Amino acid sequence: MIEVVVNDRVGKKVRVKALEEDLVGDFKKLLAVQIGTAAGKIALKKGNTTLKDHITLGDYEVHNGTNLELYYS
């Protein structure tokens, strides 16, 4: 179990618990429940890379304590 910090760049940070084997799409669903937004409207970035829904968090090297940026599409 890992804990990922998601920052919306407006000062709100959300901590989401997930598994490294989870798909980014599944992670977005967990995040959407916590922030009250539809999962389809969420875009996540790590550095300059936009995370795609069908790839696992581990493949993007998202580990415990990793920071992701939240964008709305």
From TrEMBL:
Top-level taxon: Eukaryota
Q: Which CDD domains match?
A: Ubl_UBL5
Q: Where does the Ubiquitin-like domain lie?
A: 2-73
Q: Which residues cross the membrane?
A: none
Q: SUPFAM superfamilies per the record?
A: Ubiquitin-like
Q: Which UniProt keywords apply?
A: Ubl conjugation pathway
Coiled coil region boundaries: none
Q: Which PANTHER family match?
A: UBIQUITIN-LIKE PROTEIN 5 (PTHR13042)
Report the protein name in the record: Ubiquitin-like modifier HUB1
Organism from which the protein derives: Cyberlindnera jadinii (strain ATCC 18201 / CBS 1600 / BCRC 20928 / JCM 3617 / NBRC 0987 / NRRL Y-1542) (Torula yeast)
The gene is: HUB1
